[in-house]
Amino acid sequence: MRKKSSILSLSTFLSLIAFSLLSTFQSCRIVQADRTQTNIHKREFRGAWIQVINGQFQGMGRDAMQANLTNQLNELQACGVNAIIFQVRGEADALYQSPYEPWSRYLTGEQGVAPNPYWDPLAWMVQECHKRGMELHAWINPFRAKTKGTTKLAATHPYSMHPERFFEYDGLYIFDPGLAENREYICRVAADIVRRYDVDGLHIDDYFYPYPVAGKTIPDEKTYQAHRNGIPDINDWRRENVNRFVRQLNDSIHAAKPWVKFGISPFGIYHNAKSGSLVPGSKTNGLQNYDDLYADVLYWIDKGWVDYTAPQLYWEIGHKAADHETLVKWWADYASARPLFIGQDVERTVRAKDLKDPSQNQMAEKFRLQRSTPGVQGSCLWYSAAVVRNEGGYATQLKENYHRNLALQPKMKHIDDKAPGKPRGVKAMWMPDGYYLFWTAPRAKNELDKANWYAIYRFKKGEKVDLGNNGNLLTLTQSTMYKLPYENGKTKYTYVVTALDRLQNESSGVSVKVKL
């Protein structure tokens, strides 16, 4: 096998060091993409929710659950998904080693019982997602403390220790949001996750005050009378409680790690226009964040208390009460001061007929709408298992069309917009098992300046080096090496390596010409 003379001149000692590094990073997988199609969507959030509260992993055991999750992650990676939102706290419990709350029954079958053999699902998921070039956002349900199906709480559960801090509603236990100690406690739990795990985001969904049930009243009158703080209307007081919580949670997350993104996926309707009041409303007819869940989402965005929003716009285009197209445009008009992603329901999408061509489903039109609406920067798929099952050919279309090329994360300029330095010492080198690119991390003054990922591009001889075209983006990796696909040494390529920080601000590139 031919080797360049310049490579032959490298010392044997240096080669041995490099090969030692190779062994260290051997397990770090990379994300490969098809480069034959140009795709202008170089930055796009492509998330998927992996929920636990549905019991899909309950009592499965470590090996079976890891195998299940490995299969899901592999398929989602092949589908171009670049962020996993993994549920780790569904009812004041934990799918991780928590100093505050008991192990979840949705993991082991019994609340408070540790997994045996022992493992930490959140730590494992962080590692596995990062191997695949994906972000991992830890998803918690803040105020729900018991679901209807839970009949036994562990002695270490917060309700078991402080029942006076909760109220019961339609079979649920809810942390009373009107109590400052509850808001502080939940923020402490979230900050603990952020400090101890290398998560990229902390995510909450639409469970604030409970979803209303006909004939039932939220039993928080005593709390209101004791803590009303001069607010004359109980509905405004409830909204203020949630406002305080969201602001405090945002502060807690960023105090622990400034780069961790705080995201919320609210119910898809903020407020119905026909309901009146001074807040903006959409031409819809359904449950409302503002009025029914006491979640003033637009206020949080306007105040800068969230880093991204992913409203659950699960309805089909043409839905009489909540038209998907109407809601996409409404959220883009009112909520794009922070990055906005569209929550897409896979099953409903593929079961709904396209309004113009009933022979096909609505996937194509929903993607067209998402990508043509200013202010929308991606989507999140509900839910992962539906993608993995390839419902209605959804996964096939992601692979062959919509996610054919890799995408970096949308910029979070409000957190940090400074790119890291360039990779240093980029060179091609022969090793015992093949031809590699090696490089060294750029120097950094602080954590936000450090390189956390590397992007690798490839260009054919005579092809313009254009880093804005993700059709040439080969790989996103945390390793500082990349194995080249050597064949016969007759084809010339230019490889470009860039560094990305934790928020995926991208450096300028360093190029190397090789013959493969």
List the total number of helices.
16
Radius of gyration: 25 Å
Strand order of the largest sheet: 9-8-7-3-2-1-11-10
CATH superfamily of the largest domain: Glycosidases
**Low-confidence stretches at least 5 residues in length (pLDDT < 50)?**
1-39
CATH C-level category of the largest domain: Alpha Beta
- From the coordinates shown, what is the CATH architecture of the largest domain? Alpha-Beta Barrel
Give the percentage of residues in beta strands.
15-25%
Give a written overview of the molecule.
30% of the residues lie in helices and 19% in strands. It has 516 residues and is of the alpha/beta class. The strands form 4 sheets. An 8-stranded parallel beta sheet has the order 9-8-7-3-2-1-11-10. Strands 15-14-17-18 form a 4-stranded antiparallel beta sheet, with no helix packed on it. β12 (424-431) and β13 (434-440) form a beta hairpin. It is globular. Mean pLDDT is 92; it is low at 1-39.
Short précis:
The protein is of the alpha/beta class and about 525 residues long. Helix content is about 30%, strand content about 20%.
Keywords, please?
18 strands; disordered N terminus; 516 residues; Immunoglobulin-like; TIM Barrel; 8-stranded parallel sheet; alpha/beta
How do the strands and helices of this protein lay out in sequence?
Blueprint: H1 5-8, H2 12-25, E1 45-50, H3 62-78, E2 83-89, H4 105-108, H5 121-131, E3 135-140, E4 144-146, H6 158-161, E5 166-169, E6 172-175, H7 180-196, E7 201-204, H8 221-227, H9 234-256, E8 261-264, H10 289-293, H11 297-303, E9 308-309, H12 324-335, E10 340-345, H13 346-351, H14 363-372, E11 376-382, H15 384-388, H16 394-402, E12 424-431, E13 434-440, E14 453-460, E15 473-477, E16 481-483, E17 492-500, E18 510-515
